[in-house]
Amino acid sequence: MLKEMHKKEIFFNKERFYNMIIFKTTAYFNPHLDDLCFFEEKEGITKKLVSALEPSNKQSGPVDLFCLSWAICFYKTSKKILAEQDYTNKDLKVKVTLEMQKDDKGFYFKPTAILGIQDMTLEQTEIIADATHKRCPISRLISADENVSVKVSNYNELITE
């Protein structure tokens, strides 16, 4: 009986570890910043990428560049879809987060794109986000992964600075 209880405790602790976030990276794309993008990690380190070829002293890595790529692609695809619907004067914000997690198979990424559109309801924004996720080349590349998600937020509540 004692051995069985001990095994259950180990399994419980193992499960807790598997659902733990190992690290989290956030990329913000804001065209008003002249393509300067900011990365924020779980440890509270903020990095600024001026050039993909010459990263800042704190060195951005592939995860940062993936987040940045998806954020820019999602932003531009959303703008294109809005323009097709004659919403050319709408400002929007895109935030991409990526968490590294672990399960019984090993490590995996959990990327999330969040879209906020100025003066649009969450329902309207969700329609644009769904259409964007179907057309954005990077979204199409990763959409089969069950860990990929797209969410919406109120424009004024989506912090991208």
Automatic annotation (TrEMBL):
Keywords: Oxidoreductase, Peroxidase. This is Lipoyl-dependent peroxidase. One of its GO terms (molecular function) is peroxidase activity. It comes from the Bacteria. The lineage of its organism: Bacteria, Bacillati, Mycoplasmatota, Mollicutes, Acholeplasmatales. Signal peptide: none annotated. The keyword Oxidoreductase applies. The keyword Plastid does not apply.
